[in-house]
């Protein structure tokens, strides 16, 4: 456990809790967290995770813009459900992305290219749905976070595994709160 991992974990908990509460400050706090995690993952050679956190940095800015300037009644985006087509296309693109990224990662010294790539691809989909305030993002986050817990326990990154366990609990809370807050289309 490093100080970098500790600080990133604390910011991660705060950012996800603010996301559950639909507070737009989740995005700039999340931006700092993903930058710190990108550094951490680079040091432990989980390069798809570095890439994921780099993309998450851009998505933090996109989400912040969506939540503060999106199509909601008060300048923000409302919580809505994803369509069946959005879900199907999203899952297909994430699956194809995990294969493509996995193939790329096998040509590096990446520690665990296939699980790293798969979790990365599906995390990107969950993050996109979160930025668009699709309540289904929380269902996907629950699945991804549980898999991350196992992945990080296997590597003995205990604090990060604990963080993802906490993220799982927050995702359950987010699912409940966002489903109640959703606008029926």
TrEMBL record:
It holds the Pfam family NMN_transporter. This is Nicotinamide riboside transporter PnuC. Required for nicotinamide riboside transport across the inner membrane. It is a multi-pass membrane protein. The chain crosses the membrane at residues 46-67, 79-105, 138-155, 161-178. Its main location: membrane. GO terms for cellular component: plasma membrane. GO terms for molecular function: nicotinamide riboside transmembrane transporter activity. It comes from Stutzerimonas marianensis. InterPro entries: NMN_transpt_PnuC (IPR006419). Belongs to the nicotinamide ribonucleoside (NR) uptake permease (TC 4.B.1) family. Keywords: Cell membrane, Membrane, Transmembrane, Transmembrane helix, Transport. The keyword Cell membrane applies. It is found in: Cell membrane.
């Amino acid at each position: 456990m490093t100080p970098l991992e500790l600080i990133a974990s604390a910011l991660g908990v705060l950012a996800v809790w603010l996301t559950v509460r639909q507070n737009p400050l989740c995005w700039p706090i999340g931006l700092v967290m993903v930058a710190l995690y990108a550094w951490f993952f680079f040091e432990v050679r989980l390069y798809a995770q570095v890439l994921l956190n780099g993309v998450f940095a851009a998505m933090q800015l996109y989400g912040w813009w969506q939540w503060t300037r999106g199509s909601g009644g008060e300048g923000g985006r409302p919580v809505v459900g994803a369509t069946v087509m959005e879900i199907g296309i999203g899952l297909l693109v994430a699956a194809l992305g995990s294969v493509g990224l996995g193939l790329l990662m096998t040509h590096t010294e990446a520690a665990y290219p296939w699980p790293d790539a798969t979790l990365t691809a599906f995390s990107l989909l969950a993050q996109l749905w979160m930025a668009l305030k699709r309540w289904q993002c929380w269902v996907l986050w629950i699945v991804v976070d549980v898999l991350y817990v196992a992945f990080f326990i296997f590597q003995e990154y205990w604090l990060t595994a604990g963080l993802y366990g906490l993220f799982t609990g927050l995702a359950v809370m987010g699912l409940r709160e966002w489903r109640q807050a959703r606008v029926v289309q």
